[in-house]
Amino acid sequence: MSSIDQFEGRGFRRGEDVEExxxxxxxxxxxSRSWADLLRGAKFLKADLTGNISDALLKTSFMxxxxxxxxxxxxxxxxxxxxxxxPRHYAQYLxxxxxxxxxxxxxxxxxxxxxxxxxxIARFGGADTMxxxxxxxxxxxxxxxxxxxxxxxxxxxxxxxxxxxxxxxxLWAYEVEPLSSVRVRFAYWAGxxxxxxxxxxxxxxxxxxxxxxxxxLKALTFLIISRLGAAYNxxxxxxxxx
Length: 242
Description:
Distance between the termini: 51 Å
Oligomer: single chain
Helix content: 40-55%
Radius of gyration: 19 Å
Mean pLDDT: 93
Number of strands: 10
CATH class of the largest domain: Alpha Beta
Shape: globular
Strand content: 15-25%
């Protein structure tokens, strides 16, 4: 639809050194599915799809990271903008985004409606195996956002989106829905003299109905934590010492 120079003039960088199979999967969908299917895929991805089936732009955003696909079958180009300047995050998000787009294109229904229930990752697979990821997620978040308070988390949301929510008696809780009906919440307790700080990682129960692969869900959760950590570090670097 537009020239490469125009994309670059808008601040986009050319996506390079990514696995070609992900771009091929997008092309295959444009060559084999209807425009209505592609629009449904965009809805699952929370993306904007403009143009037509032979000359389209597909743009999606994730926590301060924009991916833009310029699709002119048999050609496709990938561009990105990362406001946190994390060079490889766009390539890590690419498979998650493409798989989500494909699920939407192949789906016969709309994304599931939100649920009031929150569940752990153990509900997505073998409970014994998955339960260990609760500790892994917690350790990573505590490592990248040590001693973060509610005010700082509120400022982090200004950089990467999402929202601060109330969760039981947690000091703070952060929630984000990067893909339609894929909702992730982290709740943080500061601990005391007897107990160390603690983080609970939860998902909206509707996430189960999206059929997101467990490997994609784990990768997405880790990437959300990385984005939060990058935003937190950026925030702390701007705080002037007294």
